[in-house]
Amino acid sequence: MTDFIRKRVVVTGVGAITPIGNTPAEYWEGLISGRNGIDYITHFDASSHDCRIAGEVKNFDPHEYLERKEAKRMDRFSQFGVAAAKQALADANLVINELNAEQIGVIIGSGVGGIKVLEDQQIVYLNRGPDRCSPFMIPMMIANMAAGLTAIHTGAKGPNNCTVTACAAGSNAIGDAFRLIQGGYAQAMICGGCEAAITPLSVAGFAACKALSFRNDDPTHACRPFDRDRDGFVMGEGGGILILEELQHALSRGARIYAEIVGYGMTCDAYHITSPVPGGEGAARAIQLALKDGEVTPEQVTYINAHGTSTPANDSNETSAIKKALGDHAYKIAVSSTKSMTGHLLGGSGGIEAVATVLAIANSQIPPTINLENPDAECDLDYVPHTSRTQNIAVALSNSFGFGGHNVTLAFKKYQ
């Protein structure tokens, strides 16, 4: 990226479908008020499961965004992606037409794609035979379809892609979109992540690998990032989308600017299929690369939206990574995990957490980490417990880490 002038990239629109609100305004109000979106699973009978709790999206009506026939032919994760994308375009007041369509693209990540339709169609196959499987099974199931359908429903004909890097997918999508605009390959990008994996098989699988919380008797306190008594993550669902634009393109049309995206760091632990490398070395490098990419010093960082999953391994290792990357300044930074309220959206988490990060910058307010009642001695940073905090934010980071050792950090800056 050194042989040409990099274009500046700003955030001009946001969209969010989450367990604590189905619009960006509802989501933000939920975050700042410390609303908990985690409760008992209602999508299926979970009585025989070891984990019976999740952060479900409530009262979502896809027909507010899609014709009934179109919605029926989409898996829920794609519905979330298209809905959040339409929200974000409306928020940005960005109209896609024949004059600009080829310069506007889409990258939307997902960890598992349409797992619900896959499970349902497997039952059809076993009980009724192969001839009864739906012709829409494959296009409903494949993970790239949220990006493809978003383009179909918005008319965006520019670069189109899908990142599938587990829980880092949404952040990778935003980072890759940032790079395309920086390099002049697009004027604007619709980007983020979506997921709808609260299904019988998915919950059973994550429970089997001991990743989930089994605090079934107390769902509202089950997700407790950085707490001594944390016992696993709580699955969530939804979608979060940003509109990224080249700065001059945004200014030329009088767009409101939430923040500037300045850095993207991406590494791999190359260590284990599910566990982070002890000490957070890979995550620390991602943070350092994002800072270097954005020409940001550690002392400029005010806030970090942590990956903060509430698993024993992640939270202590992420704390170590932040300290390794930022040195003594780590103790002066506000760090919070919004997963404490939404649960973990897997591939969608980077999307809604990037939305939270840019809204924090725009509103000079930091969302809290709820349920942090008994701090872990190994987690000794300022995690903004219980209550949101009013504070000017110069630079904010958003961390996302995924199975397979994927590490992503995005750096956002107050626009000036």
Structure, described:
This protein is α/β, with parallel strands linked by helices and 416 residues long. The chain has 2 domains: 9-252, Thiolase/Chalcone synthase (Peroxisomal Thiolase, Chain A, domain 1); 264-413, 3-Layer(aba) Sandwich (Peroxisomal Thiolase, Chain A, domain 1). Helices cover 33% and strands 18% of the residues. The relative contact order is 0.19. The chain has a 10-stranded mixed sheet, with helices on both faces. A two-stranded antiparallel ribbon has the order 2-3. The chain has a two-stranded antiparallel sheet with strand order 11-12. The chain starts with 8 loop residues before the first strand and ends with a strand. It has helices spanning 24-33, 68-72, 76-92, 115-128, 137-141, 145-154, 169-182, 200-208, 247-252, 281-293, 312-326, 339-342, 349-363; strands spanning 9-17, 39-40, 53-54, 104-109, 160-161, 188-195, 238-246, 259-268, 301-305, 334-336, 365-366, 389-390, 395-402, 406-413. The mean pLDDT is 97. The longest helix is centred in the N-terminal third of the chain and has 17 residues, at 76-92.
Using only C-alpha atoms, the radius of gyration works out to: 20 Å
Strand content: 15-25%
What's the CATH H-level homologous superfamily of the largest domain? Answer: Thiolase/Chalcone synthase
Q: Return the average pLDDT rounded to an integer.
A: 97
Second CATH tier, the architecture of the largest domain: 3-Layer(aba) Sandwich
